[in-house]
Amino acid sequence: MSTYRVATIGLGVGRGHIDEAWAALPDQFELAAVCDLDDTRLDAARAAYGVEGTKDFDALLARDDIDIVDICTPPALHLPQVLAALEAGKHVICEKPLAGSLRDIDAMAEAEARSPGHLMPIFQYRYGAGAMTARAIVDAGLAGKPLAATAETFWFRDADYYAIPWRGTWKTELGGTMTTHAIHIHDMMTWLMGPVEAVFGRLTTRAHDIETEDTATASLRFASGALGALTANVASQDEYSRLFLAFENVTFESTREPYAVGKGPWTMTIRDPEIRAKIGALVASLPDPGNRFTGQMRAFHHALETGAPPPVSVADARDAIALLTAFYMSAETGREVTLPLPDADPGRAGWPQQARGNAA
Ligand SMILES: NC(=O)c1ccc[n+]([C@@H]2O[C@H](COP(=O)([O-])OP(=O)(O)OC[C@H]3O[C@@H](n4cnc5c(N)ncnc54)[C@H](O)[C@@H]3O)[C@@H](O)[C@H]2O)c1
Asked: What is the pLDDT of residues 280-290, one digit of tens each?
């Protein structure tokens, strides 16, 4: 079994990657270097992990002893950094949102196809026994057809959070709470319910002094004909996430833990005793997927070792960005937007709010 050497770039949530994965899985990974422009964060990480720290991203890419570049920088940097790291032949892990447009995601997919490296976007909330059990039941064909679903993201962020300059603007955060916070649970919903065909979105900014939305709702129609509803608010006194999925044979209700919504057990309701028995037997056979970054990075290691594609793919991130594109286009025009967007649609280059933000 190989041990892959990792450099983590960006030491905000990047510290979470280190603590939950690189430091927690020493047989699979070794933290080789950290990179940040902020001296305080760099010094703290150097001291905590006893590794080399640098401000020079390009110098890390030139090193032969680094196998994986772990990008945890603000969203607008993801495209140039991912492209440069793939060009340098590295495996790349990148935080959400992977990019701010379908065009940029497609450029990343092309760069990945040309590179010996793989690109894995982060969607760590999928990793938890609740979400993985639901997925196994759907994959086994035991859930029956999808009927309806709701996804709720009620989180709290204060003015200090939005005082960080890249947050709250279309140009640097790329979107608001739908892009930054609710993207996780919406990814989980589409991963379990299937592709989205039509979106009607509404957004507003109710509580924070920011350019992007802090409150949003959307109505979805899935390609299967099932319906879905999304709500997100990032100034909620109570904090919770909740996914409720109704399939023909089973309903799934997630935990309410805002930062571990995939964790098990989820509540399952199954009326038919025969189906209940089949699902019970399947569930008893499932391995522990691990939680959050630990689970996702462990699965990435397995993929690298076996030559399988990354467990979360660029195509998965593309689905999330397609949903966001349709949501923002609909919120802008007041009309339903259908997916997939035609090749010539200007929305493929980003959502209209970003263009306004860039021009401002
Ligand atoms: N998966 C999750 O649960 C999760 C949670 C939080 C944030 N995120 C995502 O992670 C990314 C970072 O968010 P954050 O909250 O950690 O932000 P942050 O501002 O706290 O940290 C980003 C760090 O990147 C550093 N940085 C900026 N430009 C750099 C450069 N050119 N080279 C090296 N370092 C540079 C900054 O100095 C800063 O320390 C965002 O895309 C965000 O959406 C994901």
From this structure: 999 999 999 99
